[in-house]
């Protein structure tokens, strides 16, 4: 099996992101020991490590979404072992009301898999 390059991973990520298939991204592209990092002061998310814990973090958030107003994701920018996309999310969320998040999503790739995702907002 050929190991995907960072560009290959970013390209596939983009294909799935444009379809809002975030759990498919996790299943297909994340390493078993992936880390998911949000800002320390985030009221929405925290830190998760391991594919199952990262998925649960996402599932718990999705369950709280009551209405989606707008979602956009940019094409990835690749540099070395990293790629980044900008993401804008505007939705109504249980416990928080209407939330708009403009963020940079930074991914690190090793051995053809995403080993970390960091959200900067």
UniProtKB/TrEMBL annotation:
Pfam families in the record: SnoaL_5
Residue ranges occupied by any SnoaL-like domain in the UniProt entry: 4-121
Name this protein carries in UniProt: SnoaL-like protein
Organism field: Chitinophaga polysaccharea
């Amino acid at each position: 099996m050929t190991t995907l390059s960072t560009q290959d991973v970013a390209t596939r990520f983009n294909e799935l992101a444009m379809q809002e298939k975030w759990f498919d991204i996790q299943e297909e592209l994340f390493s078993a020991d992936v880390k998911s990092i949000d800002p320390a002061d985030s009221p929405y998310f925290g830190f998760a490590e391991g594919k199952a814990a990262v998925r649960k973090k996402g599932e718990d958030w999705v369950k709280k979404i009551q209405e989606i107003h707008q979602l956009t994701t940019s094409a990835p920018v690749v540099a070395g072992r990293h790629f980044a996309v900008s993401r804008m999310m505007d939705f109504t969320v249980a416990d928080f009301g209407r939330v708009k998040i403009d963020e940079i999503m930074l991914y690190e790739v090793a051995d053809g898999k995403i080993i970390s995702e960091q959200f900067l907002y």
